[in-house]
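User: Design a sequence. Structure:
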């Protein structure tokens, strides 16, 4: 009778569960769902493309994760604006009065998803490395949450770990080393650490822990593998929005290196420096930063 039977039959328009199914309604759980899905896609890209051509692998990963995130955001949150690393930088870097540029929609939006489809792109392209992440954050104009970040998720697919604000991780315990007077461990970029950070570490008797990805470094502070993350010299809102949302939900300190607030969904998405650390270390670190800032 032309009727489909059996488990493989699907009603027109119904989504295949292997494609992700219906996502959670709550924004923070939705952020986790999105980051996890992009993470699975990135693991698949690594498998399919291989490591022989690092540039091709980075490009394929960036594109696949960006396409998935923007498609799902358009499908499930069509009224919201998006700021993504993979967007046209000339458009997002709009400044009032600048000739020939168009004010981006996100500057008038009340909800903006700030996403970094692949943070730690370099590490993603190196076989065996797991220090790369997917960042999904939600900025809201009502500013009722710290830094106006209402939700955030950081997926670390190669570590099978996701931190998100739907289940804020516990505040990191005081590490044994610190309790017994051992050195403070400061996570820093393995390829572009701030020029002053070595002198700062020497000054306060700290140890530098190099690793890739801003998300992975902030996750290291959240889970107690590092005591602080310091970055300066260049970064964008998408590099820190999601991990800062999770760090704040956990109760950690997060600010610019001069102690001022981190601001998101600005006309210019450059956000070149930050410090994330346990609250008890913030006064000491900010004082040391004052001494070492150029
Ligand atoms: N000086 C700089 N200027 C611009 N972006 C920088 C930067 N230093 C680090 N970043 C960005 O911050 C993220 C984390 O860097 P790192 O791994 O070196 O700590 C990376 O994001 P992407 O991988 O998304 O490009 C990297 O591009
Ligand atoms: Mg990034």
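Assistant: Done.
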């Amino acid at each position: 009778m032309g009727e489909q039977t059996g488990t493989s039959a699907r009603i027109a328009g119904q989504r295949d569960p292997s494609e992700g199914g219906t996502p959670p309604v709550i924004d923070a759980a939705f952020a986790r769902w999105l980051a996890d899905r992009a993470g699975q896609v990135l693991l698949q890209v690594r498998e399919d493309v291989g490591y022989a051509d690092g540039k091709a692998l980075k490009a394929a990963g960036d594109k696949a994760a960006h396409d998935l995130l923007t498609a799902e955001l358009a499908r499930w949150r069509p009224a919201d604006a998006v700021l993504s690393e993979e967007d046209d930088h000339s458009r997002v870097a709009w400044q009032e009065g600048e000739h020939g540029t168009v004010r981006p929609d996100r500057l008038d939006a009340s909800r903006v998803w700030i996403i970094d489809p692949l943070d730690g792109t370099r590490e993603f392209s190196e076989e065996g490395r797991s220090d790369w992440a997917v960042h999904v954050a939600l900025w809201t104009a009502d500013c009722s949450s710290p830094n106006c970040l209402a939700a955030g998720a950081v997926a670390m697919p190669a570590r099978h770990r996701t931190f998100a604000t739907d289940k804020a991780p516990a505040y990191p315990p005081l590490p044994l080393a610190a309790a017994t007077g051992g050195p403070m461990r400061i996570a820093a970029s393995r390829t572009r650490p701030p020029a002053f950070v070595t002198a700062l570490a020497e000054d306060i008797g700290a140890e530098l822990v190099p690793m890739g990805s801003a998300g992975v470094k902030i996750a290291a502070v959240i889970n107690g593998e590092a005591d602080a993350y310091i970055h300066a010299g260049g970064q964008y809102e998408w590099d820190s929005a999601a991990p800062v949302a999770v760090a704040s939900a956990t109760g950690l300190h997060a600010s610019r290196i001069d102690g001022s607030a981190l601001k998101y969904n600005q006309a210019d998405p450059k956000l070149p420096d930050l410090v994330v650390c346990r609250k008890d270390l913030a006064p000491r670190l900010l004082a040391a930063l004052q001494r070492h800032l150029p």
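The two ends are 79 Å apart (CA to CA). The chain has a mean pLDDT of 90.
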